[in-house]
Amino acid sequence: MAEPARRLPSAPQATPDPCALVLFGVTGDLARRKIVPALYHLAVAGALPEHFALVGFSRSAGDDGALRQRLRSALETHVKGGLDEGVWKRFAPRIHAVPGAVDDLVAYARLSKKLDELDREYGTEGNHLFYFATPSSIFAAILSQLKKSELVVPRRKASTRPWSRVIIEKPLGHDLASFEELTAVTRGVLDEHQIYRIDHYLGKETVQNILVFRFANAIFEPLWNQRHIDHVEITMAESIGVEGRGSFYEETGVVRDIVQNHLLQVLALCTMEPPVDFGPYEIRNMKSQVLRSLRLLHPGEVGENVVWGQYEGYREEPGVDAHSRTPTFVAMRAFIDNWRWNGVPFYLRAGKGLAGRLTEVSFHFRSVPACLFGDETTCRLIPSNVLKIRIQPDEGISLAVASKVPGEGQGVGGVNMDFSYAEAFDRKPPEAYERLLLDCMRGDPTLFARKDEVEFSWEFVDPILAAYEGSKLPLSIYPRGSQGPAEAAELLSRSGHKWGPIS
Ligand code: BG6
Fold first, then answer.
1. What spacing in Å lies between the alpha carbon of 58 and ligand 1's midpoint?
2. Which of 22, 38, 75, 173 could join 179 via S-S bond, C-beta 3.0 to 4.6 A?
3. CATH assignment of 202-426+451-493, among 3.30.360.10, 3.40.50.970, 3.30.70.100, 3.40.50.2000
C-alpha cells in the first residue's frame, strides 16, 4: 500500500464572483450531460458562489417549473450515486427559464429583464456569464443579439465591474478561415479577456498535473529533450461510437473533434518551455510558441505520415451518409521544429470504436549507449525507459525501468514504478467542467485556449484535412473493438517503433 501523498500548502484560490450564468442550449446534450451536473456537484461541495443564479435560454426551455423538472431528470440520469434532496432543494429555486429563439430580439429583452430581477433577488451584482452550449454555427447570431440588447459590452480592462464573459465550446470553426470569421464576430462584441474558449481536457486534473510533474520535479527537465527522448506517443482512444451524434460527427470527424483541440493541447503542455510563472499570460505564451513550431505537412507528405480509419458500422449510424468517408480514427507522425525537440517523432492517435477508453502520453527514452550485459542481440532486448502519463482512466504515472532478474548471471528485465491518483490521494479527480466553470467565475483564463493557440492548431491540421478531403487518400475500415487499422501499426514499425496497446 502506497504511503498517502503529503499535501503542501498551495496559493489560495480566488473566490468565484457572484454571478448569473445564462446557458444557451440548456436542453441540449452537453448541458444535460456535463454542464448542469458540474454545477450541481459544485453545489454539493459548497463551491458555487453564495450569490448565484442559472438561467436556461432555449426555444423549448418552458417555464421555470418545467425547466427545473427537466434538469432534475437529467441529474437523476447523470449524477452518480443519486440526487441529494437537500442540495436539490437549495439549487432548484436558482434555476430560471427564458424561452426564446436565438435570433428573436424580443426574447433577449425578456432575458435582460430577468437578469435585472435576479441581480436584485440573488445579489449577483450585474455579473453575467453567457455559456454557448450550442452548435458553433449560431454563435454569431447569439452574439449579435446580446450586443444589440446591450447585455454584453466590450471592456478594455479585466478588472472592470460588473463583468460580462462568454464561454464558447469547440468546435471553434471548421478550419482556420472560419475560426478567423468567428474571431472577427467575437472581437466586434467583446475583448479577448472576456472570451473563454473551453477545451475540457485542460480542466482535467491529470492534464494539469503534466505541468506540475514537469516543473515541480527537478529530475525530469534535464532529460526532456531530443538528446534523451527517442519518440513520444499520445493516444486518445474511445470504445464508444458516435452515440446518436452522427450528423454532428459527419461535419467534424476525428481530426476536428479531438486532434485540433484536446490532443494538441496535451502535446503543448508536454513539450512547452518552462514558463516564468504559473499565470495565464506566461503559460499560454509557452503553449502558443510550441504549437507554432509544429512542422506543417505538404499535401504530398500527408499520405506517408497520416493513417485514416473508420469503424465498421459507422455508415449505418443514424445521421451518417451511407458512403461517408468521415474518419473516426487517425494516426499521424508529427515533428516539432525547435531546439528542444528537433527530430523526435511525435505519434498522435485518436479514435472511436476502439478496444478501450484510454488517454495517455508515453515518453520513450533512448537506449543505453553501450552494451554491458551480454552480446548485442541480448542488449537490444533490454527495454528502454518509458515514462507514461495516464490521463484517463486509471489516472497516474508510471516509469518502466530495467532491473536485474534475481538469480545467477546478469539477466535484465523490465519493471514498472507506478503512481496511481486513486491510491495516493484516496479519491478520484473531479470532473473537468467543475474546475473550468469556477475559473471562469473567478476570471482566471489560464485553462482556456487563447486565440493564437487555436490559430496555430488550425494551421497544423488544415493542410492535413485538405489533403484528405481533396483527394483519394485511403480510408481503412477497422473492426469495432480493435486497435484500429493495421496501417497505423505500420506507420510506427517503419521506424522500429510500436504503439502501446489499447485495452
Ligand atoms: C468531446 C468530443 O470533446 O470529447 C467527443 O466531442 C468525445 O466526441 C469527448 O467523446 C471525450 O471526452 P472525455 O472527457 O470522455 O475523454
1. 24
2. 173
3. 3.30.360.10
The residue whose CA is least distant from atom 8 of ligand 1 is 257
Could you state, in chain order, the average pLDDT of each consecutive group of 10 residues for the chain (503 residues)? 55 82 94 96 94 95 94 94 94 96 95 96 95 91 94 84 94 93 90 94 94 95 97 98 94 97 98 94 97 96 97 98 98 98 98 98 93 78 91 93 84 88 80 94 95 98 96 95 98 96 96
Across the strands, what pairs with 351? 237, 329
* Ligand 1, atom 2: closest residue by C-alpha: 257
Which part of the chain is CATH 3.30.360.10?
202-426+451-493
C-alpha–C-alpha distance, residues 460 and 302, integer Å: 12
Q: Which residues are catalytic?
A: 262
Q: What is the homologous superfamily of the domain 19-198 according to CATH?
A: NAD(P)-binding Rossmann-like Domain (3.40.50.720)
Closest ligand 1 atom, CA of 245?
A: 8
**Cβ(238) – ligand 1 distance below 6 Å:** yes
User: Which residues touch 181 (CB under 8 Å, ≥6 apart)?
Assistant: 173
The model's pTM = 0.94
Minimal CA–CA distance to 449: which of 195, 133, 175, 134?
195
Distance 411 CA to ligand 1 centre (A): 44
